[in-house]
Design a protein that fits this description.
The structure holds 2 protein chains of 2 kinds. Chain A is an alpha/beta fold. Chain A has one domain (2-111): Glutaredoxin, CATH 3.40.30.10. Helix content of chain A is 46%, strand content 21%. Chain A is built from 5 helices and 7 strands; from the N terminus they run H-E-E-E-H-E-H-E-E-H-H-E. Chain A has a 5-stranded mixed beta sheet, sandwiched between helices. In chain A, strands 2-3 form a two-stranded antiparallel sheet. In chain A, strand 2 (20-21) and strand 3 form a beta hairpin. In chain A, helix 2 (28-39) packs parallel to helix 4. Chain A is globular, with a radius of gyration of 13 Å. The model of chain A has no long low-confidence stretch (mean pLDDT 97). Chain B is of the alpha+beta class. Chain B has one domain: 2-Layer Sandwich (GMP Synthetase, Chain A, domain 3). Chain B is 35% helix and 27% strand. In chain B, 23% of the residues are buried. The chains are: A alpha/beta, B alpha+beta. Chains A and B meet through strand 6 and helix 4 of A and helix 2, helix 3 and strand 3 of B.
Chain lengths: 115, 74
């Protein structure tokens, strides 16, 4: 599972580890992070951490970040809901997406399962 | 809430620290820290310092939800 999480972080452009799914977030902070990413037009790959407590344990061991949600862009931890909101409001998030993914960064949302 | 203020006060002595119990239930907190230690650090690094200070209540489940706002003084 650790390898799978690592693979997702490294290979997906924008990853949101969240409680629940984009269709039904189970936590206010996950929803806030998702909303900020959506406003910036980020091509979000969402991973629900709720199906197995081990997902969160392995993720936090990898990232050293104790809370959910966690947002990664091209393998780099961008932050949790508070940081992503601040970055979106200041325009930094869009700038980062452009720098890392190119001007045509906008894309579809999708969900990936970890097992 | 007092415990969180204590821990943050120890980690950021003399700095502007505030803790708000967002729901009154003692487990959803808004933490605000203004410190010169944040100057020149990324937001991720700034929040990591706050998480380090609150490692114990994060690990033992005292904190169910944490919102963090950080600011340098520079």
């Amino acid at each position: 599972m650790k390898d799978q999480i690592q693979q997702i972080i490294e290979h997906e452009d924008v990853v949101l580890f969240m409680k629940g799914t984009p269709q039904f977030a189970m936590c206010g902070n996950s929803q806030r992070a998702l909303d900020a990413l959506r406003r910036a037009g980020a091509p979000v790959t969402a991973v629900d951490i709720l199906p197995d407590p081990a997902i969160r344990q392995e993720l936090t061991a990898l990232s050293g970040w104790p809370t959910i949600p966690q947002v990664f862009v091209r393998g780099e931890l961008i932050g949790g809901a508070d940081i992503v909101e601040v970055l979106e409001q200041s325009g930094e998030l869009e700038k980062t997406l452009r720098e890392k993914l190119g001007d045509e960064y906008r894309g579809e949302e999708r969900v990936v399962a970890v097992a | 809430m007092n415990r969180l203020e204590e821990l943050l006060g120890e980690a950021f002595p003399g700095d502007d620290v505030s803790v708000e119990d967002r729901t009154g239930g003692g487990d959803h907190f808004q933490v605000t820290v203004v410190s010169p230690r944040f100057d020149g650090l990324s937001l991720v690094e700034q929040h990591r310092l706050v998480y380090d200070a609150l490692a114990a209540p994060l690990a033992d489940g005292t904190i169910h939800e944490l919102r963090i706002s950080t600011k340098g003084t520079g």
